Fold this protein.
Amino acid sequence: MAHINESVVSEFVLLGLSDSRELQLFLFAIFSVVYVTSVLGNLMIIVIISSDSHLNSPMYFLLRNLSFIDICLSNFATPKMLLDFFVEHKTISFEGCMAQIFFLHIYVGSEMMLLAAMAYDRFIAICKPLHYSTIMTRKLCITFASISWTVGILHSVSHLAFTVALPFCGPNVVDSFFCDFPMVIELACKHTYEMEILTLTNSGLISLSCFLALIISYTIIFVTVQRRSSSGSSKALSTLTAHITVVVLFFGPCIYFYIWPFSRLPVDKLLSVFYIVCTPLLNPIIYTLRNEDVKSAMRKFRNRHVNAWKH
């Protein structure tokens, strides 16, 4: 990425999570397990859904796409963070920093829209079950997936276009383990009030409005489920609870970061770790442990391959 501004900063210094050598080694061990588990867990969901003909419904198509986004989210910053635990002077190039901002907002924007699509899928399945197969077609699911990536890219480009154009002449210290828009633009050598407003309107309000829309949608679905008394409603409620859990845990830190993007508190790093490192693990844990269809497909997949290995 060429420097198209007046920047003299060629790299940024990342302060990371701690200065303690012992704590860094401990964190490396913990986050390595979380990283590997989240990548393998989401990859397992993709393989299981792709290999089981019973999991060909729109919900599982969207879930498979969600797993792919979470794999991408796991890899944009976490591997560098793990390597930086063994480096005393943690740096990232100007281009690398801009790339992290770019990919972070693509994946986050895409996941927001995909979670909205999954809420719509559950709304149709529970509130209009007789029309589900005619409304939630394969074409509509592909459209949802395409829209989610398009929105993510446009959302990210709108951030990056302004950030790259800013002059950076020092300081160049980012008090985190990765680059994000609010932390980087406050290092610019110019007044960034307009950029702060842009962040608030572009990321903060989008996150908050999507979250409120999802909560309202799930509330309507929840009321509909509660009015019914059948085994099908119990299964729907279990699935619904899993969806709501993912939405709350995903949007909570996101809203915090971008509604008050320029206030720095000690809890920020803890939330950053949860948001970047742990959030991709939510999908396989919640959907695997709470979804009987996925667990059944996993057992069949395991038995099929164990029997093949024995013979």
The two ends are 53 Å apart (CA to CA). Residues 7 and 167 are 5 Å apart (CA to CA). The chain has eleven helices and three strands.
